[in-house]
Amino acid sequence: MNSAATNWHGEMRDQAAIRVKNAADSMEVRALRWTAAAEAFDDAAEQMGLLRTAILAIADDPGYKSRFLISDKGDVSPIRCDRDLAKMAAETSAASGLQRRLHALLQNAELAGQYYDWRVDNALLGASAGERPFRPKIAGPPSRPSETRRDSNRTGSGPRNYRSDLGNGRALQEASALRLGIANILPGIGGLPRSKALLNHFLSRSGEDFVFDVDDLTRSDRGFRSLSNDHAQHAFHDAESYLPEGYKGPVVFQSRYGQAYGPEGAQVPGSYRSPDRDLEYSLGTFSLQSSGIAVPGDGGGYDLQYQTSIYDYYNFDPPKTGWQLNAMHRTGMAQNFDTIGTSSPRFTSVR
After folding, report:
1. What is the Cα–Cα distance from 294 to 238, expressed in whole angstroms?
2. How far apart (Å, rounded) are the C-alpha atoms in residues 291 and 142?
3. pLDDT digits 0-9 by tens, 79-89
4. What's the rounded Cα separation, in Å, for the pair 305 and 4?
């Protein structure tokens, strides 16, 4: 999980503003502000104390120490390599689960430090959350999934297959004719702007990432907009489940691409396929993930600020779409690429 960023220049300005306000206000007004700051300090000690206790319970546990190597960053790996593959897989899975929990605790301890600093500064400035909201920068998306490219390599339509038929004269001839035909008809195709843009990028042979407008996707597709909101809320609840009982501070959350939540039949999926024809042709089924921050709301519950990122490997899988368009990739007449994109921050609440 990636970290939320801190605005150090903003903190320096806040300290200067507090000094000015202390010089200007009466003793009675200053006392009220200092009392509110003391209450924020008390909350910080309680909530960050819960996180500290939970972190030390893992780091100092003799059972964990005997089984796992735990780094200062919270990375966890098994100590022993068992020849029994089933036992080794179970131990690796246990290490992965412990690492997710420890990362969640460490990331939230960092965010909590920023949040309670903000609360203290607001109290000393006499500012409300509405006047001076807590808006740390949301972390960028996690690493892209590797399975899609790996699976595409197996079916003959992955990065490893680019120009693999360069020495096949017949394949080159057929792919060249197909490329010419597509180039001739593409300008006359109307009503499919996204599909045309991605197909042109495919024909450009650059292989570079195509950055998709996720804000436009969110505005135009109600199903995706609803799924993004539900996915962010479930990612928040998942992150919350790793935190100690009684913790009421801010929560940083980040799902993996394609991560689904909930039981079968009532699951919030980690992928989406739009009924819109243009989106169907341009993206097909694509993965999404949520990154965000939740802060305690005034009326209880949490206010969430999140961003949705998408990922798709643009290719033509022979078992699904035939060999013709994939032949252009294999002969170097076109090249597959990653489609990525991240939305602007969006807001929702969990009560």
Report:
1. 12
2. 9
3. 987 778 888 88
4. 12
